[in-house]
Amino acid sequence: MPASHLWWLPQNTEWNEEFRAIGAAPSVEWSALARLANFQMDLLRTERLDALVRRKFSDDAAAPPVDIRLAVLGSCMVSHLVPAIRVAFLRRGIRAQGYTNPFGQYLQDLADPNSALHEFKPNAVLFAFDARHMLGKIAPARDAAANSS
């Protein structure tokens, strides 16, 4: 089994059937979705579960309040991280909403008080920078000197 299947969680051979039943139900309990999140799942199941949670609890008055408003800001594409983060919070019974900046535009989002980031009003921010952004550009002369040593 690949490590991406969350090997430390129990398996559920009926996961797909339970997922379909919850998806078809006119209403669903938050705890039923949290229960599904606590089984082994791969990336596809994670994405499907996240989409189901967002569909079932988008504007539902019965939905639990949003506990975490997480902004994931990065110098590279980070939108693929948000579903897994939301499902990880769901696993602990926490309802989370996520925001990501447009590609590489985190500084603009931070600086502009009228940006979508400020409108989102996060209560937590995760910065995800790629190595080149963190280290900056290395001068070619410096690389040549390092290679000649």
Oligomer: single chain
By CATH reckoning, the class of the largest domain would read Alpha Beta
Helix content: 40-55%
For the report, how would you describe the main beta sheet?
3 strands, parallel
The number of distinct structural domains comes to 2
Q: Catalogue the unreliable spans.
A: none
Nearest-integer average pLDDT:
87
Give me the Rg, rounded. 20 Å
Kindly, what is the distance between the CA atoms of the first and last residues, rounded to a whole number of angstroms? 45 Å
Question: How many DSSP E strands?
Answer: 3
Q: Could you characterize the architecture of this molecule?
A:
- The chain folds into 2 domains: 1-61; 65-149, SGNH hydrolase (Rossmann fold, 3-Layer(aba) Sandwich).
- It is of the alpha/beta class and 149 residues long.
- α4 (82-91) links the parallel β1 (68-74) and β2 (96-100).
- It has helices at residues 15-24, 30-37, 43-56, 82-91, 106-111, 116-120, 131-135, 140-148; strands spanning 68-74, 96-100, 124-128.
- The protein contains 8 helices and 3 strands, in the order αααβαβααβαα.
Summary keywords:
alpha/beta, 2 domains, 149 residues, three-stranded parallel β-sheet, single chain, 11% strand, 8 helices, 45% helix, Rossmann fold
